Predict the structure.
Amino acid sequence: MKIKVAPGANPLENLAVDDKLNSLGVTMDPLDRSVDDKGAQKSSVKGGIEGLAKAAATGGDKKVLEPNELGEIPLGFFAGIKASSAESQAKAKIEAATQAVAGARSAIVDFLEASHFSVDSVSGVFRRVIATATKLDQATKSGVIGFTTTADRNALRAELAQYSKTIGQLWGSFADLMNKQALPFVGKRAEVYNNAGDAWGYGFEARIAAESASGTTLEVLNFITHNVSTLTDVHKMLMKCASAYSSDLLAAPKPTGPKTVAMQDHSSLAHKYWASSALASAQVGGSNYALGVAIDNGVSKAWLARDGENAGVFPFTWVAGAAQLPSSIAPDVRIALEKQLEGLLAQGLVLEPPAGGA
Amino acid sequence: MNELETRADAGQVWLAELLGDAPAAEAALSAYDESCSDVGRAIVGGAPAPEALARWLALASLGSRGMGELIERAMAAEAAGDAPKATALADLSQRLQAASSQLSTQNSK
């Protein structure tokens, strides 16, 4: 079977189509923009060429994959990431999004600082920005926010904040370019110099002056103008994702004053052992889990019970406000319990030994 | 002061208002919301007028820069244990996103 891949409506959309297929590991014959069984065989598309045909069929013709059908391809953007558990999958997604954001910011900075600009360089920046917006969108929608630790999300938040500012500079530079075009002096190089003969403005403005004479500015303006719908889509996705990670701050546990947990004395001849009653609980896979903390001869530990039965005592550490339970506990159970413990830590958890036990 | 400096100043004022006291932030957000709505309507269709697109880009620039600043400050407030401030800033970012969405809803597929 052979599937034809329809090009985008414009060069930019065409790049986005190719990027999407590349990200899925699909090999397309560039001569006729087709994919055969072999080209889809090693991809991350579920069902290989049949999966692509299935996606294409949503538009009626299963032999031609249209750009608007890309979202129907079985398996997502992160399909290539192999994960041993839901937790590591979530971590991989958030790391991939963080790296994409950092990479795109670097590309924008390079573009803004380059000595020349052209349709190709603008197109390259757009391509990077689109790929990043897509990756961010996928990560946000796939539940990464709720399934990763605060530390993981903070890394992405910090990158997002910087990226958001940098992309603001990019839009601002294009706005300057547009304003120049809208004003009568566009293309008239002399008029962007001040009375002393120095270039008016600096950086991007100076380049506008330099490039105007060659007609490059008008080509770039034309490119931006004809890709306005892409700009609006990218901006919408970025703002939506950024606010989603920001609202995660709203959902974070809020300090409400220290919580004091009374420890019970379980001294025996062999041990000086204090333990709290359950601090966190979770219902996973039909079982009820409860977790508390313990101090065994001065060493912090955590105890876990499953359906009321002892399920183990583990080494336990508080690191930078995050509770870290051992990986031997099933991820779904562990993450649910860690989140609750993080909430207690945020409140300034105090473990109080039994009277006379200190 | 040239045109670019004037616009840069306006952006700084807008950011300061957005991040400042409540009444100024409300006024800045309200003005931004209205501008986004107007420009969103003006760029409907294939190739908008340069003036409209320039305005769109300037507003998108303000929104992106504002969002970055809000996230940074909310994180700093959270790290400092100032929960009410972190909450207020995060809430502001939600409203900024809602206002900014006016820039694209007109063009959404």
User: Anything to note?
Assistant: The mean pLDDT of chain A is 73. The CA atoms of residues 113 and 203 of chain A lie 7 Å apart.
